Amino acid sequence: MKIARVLNVIALGALVGAAVTVYRIKYDATMHAEHAAKLRREIASERDAIQTLRAEWAYLARPDRIQSFAKQHLELGPLAREQTVKLAALPDRPAPVDEIGKKLEALGLMGEDASIAVDTPAAATARKPQPQPPAKKATIAVKPAAELRAPASRPAAKPLSSPKTTAPMNLTDFLKKMGLAQ
Question: Which one of 52, 104, 126, 181 is CB 3.0 to 4.6 Å from 109, fit for a cystine?
Fold first, then answer.
């Protein structure tokens, strides 16, 4: 009999736990549904605002409205026949500027004795009566390590001195050498 009562209490506890769990799941589902509905309303509101702004832009950017403002504020006239220019009368396009080449020249990395060289077309090197603008396409080639040499403007490298094999100096000798002790 005691076992039956204990089983009834356990069953009643399980039933209450299941009811609480089901209620919590239902409450969470309701909250998520309300949140999704709120987001849908906000999205619809933003879409309406975007459509309103597009309509206002289309109204403000009407060609007749822009034309009236141009006449009122810009004091422009129609294009006259004398204002046209032939293509041959236009100046040539400026030569492209090779910023990387300038930086390499400033570092001394351009030229025959450097490890980086710029290829120029053969036709440009044959005729040199007047200075030519820099080539439109520059190819940078890196020489193999065996062919590298330092530019003439760099000082020669000093050979490394061999490590001294003298005995280590004690603290007293070091202080005397530094002039801190007698």
Answer: 104
User: What's the CA gap between 2 and 139, in Å, rounded?
Assistant: 97
Looking at residue 117, its pLDDT comes to: 46
Backbone region of residue 9 per phi and psi (left: phi > 0; alpha: psi in -120 to 50; beta: other values):
alpha
Residues 127-141 have pLDDT tens digits of 555 666 655 555 565
Phi, psi of 118 (to 5 degrees): -105, 130
Neighbours of 122 (CB within 10 A): 7
What single-letter amino acid sits at 153?
S
pTM of the model: 0.35
Locus of tokens 């209620």: 23
